[in-house]
Design brief:
With 247 residues, this protein is of the alpha+beta class. It has two domains: 2-117, no CATH class; 142-237, OB fold (Dihydrolipoamide Acetyltransferase, E2P) (Beta Barrel), CATH 2.40.50.140. Helix content is 21%, strand content 32%. Strands 1-8-7-6-5-2 form a six-stranded mixed β-sheet, covered by helices on one side. Helix 1 (58-75) packs across helix 2. The longest helix is centred in the middle third of the chain and has 23 residues, at 98-120. Mean pLDDT is 86; it is low at 3-7. Bound molecules: iron/sulfur cluster.
Length: 247
Amino acid sequence: MQKGLPTDGKATSARIEAWLKSADGKVVGRPDRVETTEGRTTVVDLKTSSIEPDDVPAAYQQQLQLYSWLWHEVWGEWPHGAVIELLDGTRLPLTVIPAECETLAGEALVALDSFNELAESGADFTTLATPGIEQCRYCLFKGSCPAFLSAAEPEWGPYRSTIGGRLLEDSSNDDGDRCLTIAAERGTASNDGGVVRVRGILDGPLLPSDSFVVADRVIPEVALHDYRADPDSLIWIWDKGMEARLV
Ligand code: SF4
């Protein structure tokens, strides 16, 4: 994908797309927005990170290439362009080159088939996983993924953190504000066994101390080592052979 196709932002229509699925059902994706301006279709992906126009990460370009390929799969026509839109409204246009998109999709399908073959032959998922800051960012299974928890670094979760460790205490104060106190060992919090507190947990049965818990998608507070759970957060309990959503 090359940078270059200009987009002027004068969209005559813009819509949030539903999931796009390839004809064989193996690849799905949902672009943040698809705009149509004077008959020209542009796939838009919103990014919260700062990106230099001359240094768009390859992963972001590939994401838009796959969206473009999926768009073609579903609608039978290629988008005229693709755009990364940053938080401040800056738009980084990318040119959609169908041959490149098809090559990438072909590679993705080969990788998918290869993974499925290994999984069906009984391979250990932990060794198959290739955790990374980009591929794991929005994964809902981080809290149950040993590979992620072992490899994660603090910079992998600047806005929402994943903290795995032994539960020291599950307590509530007089205002009913429940707090999990965790000796952090893995994940995107400090991995030095430092004690962190996660508040905002819904009321429920107290968790046994010394359980290995993972608080995923929790929000760092101003005070160091303090985090808050919200409805998007997930709390996983490993030792009890179960997972539980407590927020
Ligand atoms: S968290 Fe684990 S399962 Fe999810 S994308 Fe990362 S490596 Fe894969």
